[in-house]
Amino acid sequence: MKLFFSEFKADYDKYHFPYQVWLLKEEGDEENKIYENGFLPIRSLPNVYYLSRGLRVNLSQFELSSENRRILKKTENFTAKMVSLTEFDYRADVQKLCRDYAEERLGKDIFPVPAIRSVFTGQVYNRVFVFKDQDKKPVGYAVCFANNQLLQYAHAFYDLKYLSGSLGARMMLEAVSWAKDKGCEFVYLGTCYDEGALYKTEFSGVEFFNGFSWSKNLAELKALLKRGSEEYLLRDKDYLESFHEGDLHELLSNYGIRVNL
Fold first, then answer.
1. What stretch of H or E contains 158?
2. Considering the entire predicted model, what is its pTM?
3. What does the pLDDT read at residue 47?
């Protein structure tokens, strides 16, 4: 695998020279190791991944909570089936449901039709959960990548009339439960950069990637969401003192991704 560093706007006054870290998967590379090191796939570029503040569920620690059971009870009329994307029929009605959802939830032109089509027909993902109502009508789709050890819950779309009916929560819970039953080790739930994404933490065994390790400390995650400092995280004394006993040298010794150059 290769790492690339995509340069972003620099701030000379603050001595900030940021880069987005990309990874190119090469022949023989294991997806499990790529995800384990905090990378998620770029939906428009097969075999290219980006480093981010991702969330995952450690399935060895996952058990249904009372809230999970409440969601299951509330959505018991929905059924779900996992389908290979190579066998999935991407029709006009599927595209319309997904487009309507994306425009309402994400904003117009944020997730246009060509991007939606590529999610279902490209080479990045390989499975889709199809959700149906009690009349057997398809009402939701969750596109995923799955292998024997992990599942990435990547892109979900559902009928807007169920916006307040907990269908979205049921879809994510279904994916986590399915992966647990299949003997997977982890479910990756995307990123968390604002408080609106904290719904993804409603699972026992959840943890997030802080740039150098997977952390189970949700207080740390919430502090990062509220963090106002423009200093690099590992030079932020408040952060280091609050979550790493102020010891940067120990952190650098014990964590991080080792690479051979």
1. strand 150-158
2. 0.94
3. 95
